[in-house]
Amino acid sequence: MPNEEKILQLIAKAEQEHTLKKEELTCLLASSQAEEPLAAAADHVRQEFVGDGVHLRGLIEFSNICRQDCMYCGLRRDNQRLERYRLGADEIVGLAEKAKGNGYHTVVLQSGEDMYFTAERLAGIIRRIKALDLAVTLSVGERSFDEYRLWREAGADRYLLRIETTDREVYEKFDPGMSYDNRVRCLRDLRTLGYEVGTGTLVGLPGQTPVSIAEDILFYQKLDADMVGIGPLIPNPDTPLGSAPKGDFHLTRRMVSLLRLLLPEANIPATTAMETMVPHGRELILASGANVVMPNVTEGDSRRKYALYPGKICVADTPEQCRRCMGGRIKAMGRFIAEDKGFRKHRRDLSI
Question: Which pTM was predicted?
Answer without folding.
Answer: 0.96
